[in-house]
Specification:
The protein is of the alpha/beta class and 312 residues long. The protein contains eleven helices and nine strands. The strands form four sheets. It has a three-stranded mixed sheet. Helix 4 packs antiparallel against helix 5.
């Protein structure tokens, strides 16, 4: 499940110049799964009432990485070969260069949103901001804890009504939201006592899952008072004059955790402007990067690394 994410770096740029965000804190707290099973009624139960004498649903979530990530990714490397990963800094995925922001009603509402207090006021302003933005879905995910059915499993034949169904729900938590609060919100939304919510996994108890979320929330955001961050800001501004550089949370999970757990600053960097269409293709079958952006970004990253390595 994820601790949501973040506010976009382009939000609040005082001019129409690009705004760049360095993602200094990842928001993914691990996969969360919710399974819902309803006898003679397709999931989710809250959308279509059960019409049989018995219904069952389970929801499970784990604060640990997936089995594959735990045995092949950066977490496994950190646990088994930390000496090969240990470094002064780390550059990761994340961060957005955007030309959105600037003047007019959107900029005014972004400033109001930054100062707003109270759920109703925040909700009203955020709806206007999301509606105007080409990055509306991303902004929406930064302003609320999200629940997404990513896997639904039910049925064995097309002519047989399923007797049970399971839905895996990916939960992304806003900073400050606990695992317990997220599960209560999920239960309130489902609003069906016949739906069983299971927290944890086959090798993790609910208490361990909740504790894992609490431990990850205690990891501090990466400092911006470092040579690498100053080099990032300097080179981004040189590449895209007038850019406002700021740090932000990131609405997705990355490989930053092992370094952040060791107190090593990690910065997310997407070193080229990306339109909403390009971002929507991320991890899809047509994922792509514009060639000019790839060339400019590669050159900029090289300048950043050389400046840090040489003390420039």
């Amino acid at each position: 499940m994820r601790t949501p994410s973040a506010s976009s770096a382009s939000c609040g740029a005082p001019t129409r110049s690009p705004a760049w965000s360095a993602a200094t804190s990842s928001t993914d707290a691990g996969p969360s799964t919710t399974s819902a099973a309803s006898r003679c009624s397709p999931p989710p139960p809250c959308d279509s009432p059960a019409r049989a004498d018995r219904s069952r649903a389970t929801s499970s979530w784990s604060s640990r990485p997936t089995r594959r990530a735990a045995t092949t990714g950066s977490i496994w490397l950190a646990e088994n070969h930390w000496d090969k990963l240990d470094a002064a800094y780390s550059i990761n995925e994340g961060g957005i260069i955007s030309t959105e922001g600037g003047k007019g009603k959107q900029a005014a509402d972004l400033r109001r949103l930054a100062r707003a207090h109270g759920t109703r006021k925040i909700r009203t302003i955020s709806r206007r901001v999301i509606r105007r933005s080409q990055f509306g879905p991303l902004l929406s995910a930064l302003m609320r804890t999200t629940f997404t059915n990513t896997i639904v499993d039910c049925g064995i034949r097309s002519n047989v009504i399923p007797g049970a169904a399971e839905a895996t729900v990916n939960m992304r938590l806003l900073p400050g939201v606990t695992g317990e609060q997220a599960v209560r919100e999920l239960r309130r939304t489902i609003h069906d006592r016949r739906v069983k919510i299971i927290v944890g996994s086959h090798d993790q108890t609910p208490a361990e899952a909740y504790q894992g979320i609490r431990e990850r929330r205690r990891i501090a955001a990466s400092s911006t008072d470092t040579d690498l961050y100053r080099s990032l800001a300097r080179e981004v501004k040189a590449q895209y004059p007038g850019t406002v550089v700021t740090r932000a949370l990131y609405e997705a999970g990355t490989d930053a955790e092992p370094w952040r757990q060791h107190g090593i600053p990690v910065y997310g960097l997407r070193p080229y402007p990306a339109s909403a269409a390009v971002l929507e293709e991320m991890h899809g079958i047509d994922e792509r990067v514009p060639i000019p952006g790839l060339n400019q970004g590669t050159d900029m990253v090289e300048r950043i690394l050389r400046a840090v390595a040489t003390g420039g």
